[in-house]
Design a protein that fits this description.
The protein is an alpha+beta fold. It has 11 helices and 39 strands. 48% of the residues are buried.
């Protein structure tokens, strides 16, 4: 479920924020909120003899009644937020912090160099091209011109090998659905080709540059595009200059409707490479097709037993990064003429750290790995001989690594929780690293601290956590603290810079991020320890992180806020239902909150490999035991703002609607329970900058008010 600076604007703004923290007299008691009325019905489901009430089932279908309820909830939330004085000051400060020039790492196709740039507050980053490394840059594609309000976003790009044609995907209002288009790089003119009904797919050019391979679904029936279930992805080839209706069907598996296809063409142009996934299972099969001989698809790795990530090839010798019999990853070579496993050759064996990705640049293996959820970069010869470890500029995250097989320079961005992304050039031949582009910021990163600590979970498991704050902070137990986490789908949560978090820390806040089980930080064993019937481990890891922050004097329960998105939203639901005593405020965002019916909508079925399914008798008991929606009851809950978006077709908003309605009905305490619904937005990707800034300001304003820091 699985996807981005000086001091304050002025003394007046600083004084205004400080004044909000230092009220000399208590504010008048706010009037109790009156929640919109949501009717209930008598729906009861039977799960293997267990009767489960579903009074808000009607919220799973669009209707005038639902539209009216959502409209009233949105009005209530906006009224509540606009009365928090610190909200506007936060939005101004976050805007100032956000307003710096941002660059991606450059990449080369043919003789042209491509990169993204954002001048600071543009809704979407702009794609630039240089006709040679020393040539002036020009705008190739400005996504900000795709729509007036910035809600049509660029969702992916693929440049042909000769650098002459750009394929690019767009999505509307944050939907996972993509439409792909084509652009002549030399003239900047849009070509007539359009590809529709694409989801969870990139485009991969053939060697000739005359067409692309891509995967798509059949067109949804009726009005179910945003909620209908997605099965039977198919792989096609589109030849430029022809209508999509004439695209060649390359591969489909109607006998396996839950298979998905990720296609790419090998660097030598000879092989079509197919990574075959099953839902969100981190394992995959691997097939290939010889494009020179035209033979049919070959099932090189037909078993779903491990992950196999193609690195590159020397003719019929394929290089892979895999966790087959190596939970933390290793690098192997397979000669496809002799594919038996006993003939596989290990080049880089499993080590103490977890592999993230492997690339071939300058005819060397460049290995990105994690040591306690922090990036490492190591270089090997193609035969696996160790050469050197790159000295990185701090404890943080390497991302966007780009380069070419026979190009000596590689580029990447490096960032941390307090360091904005800078672009670095790595000279692989001379083992030299230098800054390529560095942003000018509206704050001084040396004024902040980002430290790693370790704590123990309920069962004794050692968990790392990054804690970031402004220097001079006192551990007096009174600091407003935001505990963000995810814990699932083999996704590693590594340091990531956010301008909004700097504003939070400037305001005296602590930002803490633990690396829970369920993620990929320590390999597949770490992932498995937090999935299916082991999901409670994730929740326990999170609660232990909260307890650590309290025990070490960073904060206390009434000053501790909880925030997570998507699978992290599920975690927030568990925080509310299992340990409401630990938190002063909780924000479940685009969360999976109904664990009995998530598989009924869009791509939700794909998560059953991670969660299990209530359709299975063996899985139902543990899902029912922790499903946030089904574990609410009459009691006092901490302040809660449930967050969703009207075009989220990954975790459909019905989860949040049902959860918010139930929580409002069950709340017996004085703390608010709000539903924040973003308009013309989806699961998170592609949001325009102004929308991101307003969301961050709303989150921090809600937290500060309900953690006793702003009235």
């Amino acid at each position: 479920m699985r996807t981005l600076h000086t001091s304050w604007l002025g003394l007046a703004l600083l004084a205004g924020l400080a004044g909000c923290q230092q009220q000399s007299a208590p504010a008048p008691k706010a009037a109790a909120l009156v929640y919109p009325q949501a009717h209930t019905d008598n729906q009861v489901d039977d799960y293997f003899g267990t009767k489960v009430a579903a009074p808000y089932r009607w919220m799973e279908q669009d209707s005038p009644a639902l539209a009216q309820w959502v409209s009233e909830e949105k009005a209530l939330t906006e009224q509540y937020l606009e009365q928090i004085p610190v909200r506007n000051a936060l939005e101004k400060r976050i805007t100032t912090l956000w307003n710096y020039e941002k660059f991606s790492a450059p990449f080369k196709r043919g003789e042209s160099v491509f990169y993204f740039r954002n001048n600071g507050l543009q809704s979407q980053s702009v794609l630039y091209v240089q006709n040679g490394e020393q040539a002036p840059a020009r705008v190739l594609l400005d996504p900000n011109k795709l729509s007036a309000d910035g809600t049509v976003a660029l969702s992916g790009i693929a440049v042909s090998r000769d650098g002459k044609v750009l394929a690019y995907g767009t999505s509307q209002s944050g939907s996972d659905w993509q439409q792909w288009h084509f652009l002549d790089v030399a003239t900047g003119k849009k070509l007539p080709d359009t590809l529709d009904w694409i989801k969870f797919s990139s485009a991969s050019w053939d060697k000739s540059g005359k067409g692309v391979f891509y995967a798509r679904y059949d067109e949804p029936k009726g009005d179910r595009a945003l909620s209908g279930i997605n099965y039977n992805q198919k792989l096609y080839y589109h030849r430029l200059g022809t209508p999509q209706s004439q695209d060649q069907l390359i591969y489909q598996r109607p006998d396996h409707k839950d298979w998905g296809f990720g296609a790419e063409v090998s660097n030598d142009g000879r092989y079509l490479l197919l990574s075959v996934s099953k839902g969100t299972d981190s394992r995959n099969r691997f097939f290939y097709k010889d494009l020179k001989t035209g033979t049919k698809m070959v099932e090189l790795i037909p078993e779903l037993e491990a992950s196999y990530n193609f690195i590159g090839n020397d003719g019929p010798r394929f290089y892979f990064e895999t966790n087959y019999q190596a939970p933390r990853g290793k690098v192997i070579k397979i000669d496809i003429r002799h594919p038996a496993k006993r003939r596989w050759q290990t080049l880089i064996p499993q080590g103490p750290d977890t592999l993230s990705s492997v690339s071939i640049f300058n005819n060397q293996l460049v290995v990105q790995s994690m040591k306690d959820a922090l990036s490492q970069l190591t270089v090997y010869k193609l035969d696996g001989t160790y050469q050197y470890t790159v000295k990185l500029p701090g404890k943080g995250t390497v991302s966007g690594l780009t380069g070419k097989r026979r190009q000596r320079d590689a580029y990447f961005t490096f960032s941390s929780y307090i360091q904005a992304p800078s672009v670095y050039r790595l000279d692989l031949a001379n083992q030299q690293l230098e800054i390529y582009r560095q942003p000018q910021l509206a704050f001084d990163s040396s004024d902040f601290v980002s430290e790693q600590v370790f704590y123990h979970s309920k069962d004794g498991t050692r968990i790392p956590m990054m804690i970031s704050y402004k220097k001079g902070l006192k551990r007096n137990g009174a600091n407003p603290t935001l505990l963000y986490a995810y814990g699932g789908f083999n996704i590693s949560i590594m340091p990531r810079f956010s301008p909004a978090n700097i504003a939070w820390m400037e305001h005296g806040g602590i930002y803490a991020v633990p690396n829970l089980r369920g993620g990929g930080e320590y390999g597949e064993a770490w992932h498995k320890a937090g999935m299916k019937d082991k999901k409670q481990n994730v929740f326990d890891d999170y609660f232990a992180a909260a307890q650590y922050l309290i025990d070490q004097g960073y904060t206390r329960p009434d000053r501790l806020g909880a925030y997570g998105r998507s699978n992290g939203g599920l975690l927030m639901g568990a925080a509310l239902t299992q340990r409401p005593d630990l938190f002063g405020a909780v924000l479940p965002a685009v969360g999976v909150l109904d664990m009995l019916r998530f598989q009924k909508f869009t791509i939700g079925w794909a998560w059953t490999s991670e969660y299990g399914s209530s359709d299975n008798k063996a899985d139902f008991p543990y899902l029912y035991a922790y499903s946030p929606l089904h574990n609410l009851h009459k009691r006092a809950y901490p302040a809660t703002m449930v967050m969703t978006a009207d075009h989220d077709d990954r975790v459909v908003p019905y989860h949040s609607f049902k959860f918010a309605a139930t929580l409002q009905a069950d709340q017996t305490g004085p703390a608010p329970v709000l539903l924040r619904v973003e308009h013309k937005a989806g699961h998170g990707a592609g949001k325009p900058t102004a929308m991101k800034i307003r969301e961050a300001a709303d989150i921090f304003a809600f937290l500060l008010k309900n953690l006793g820091q702003a009235q």
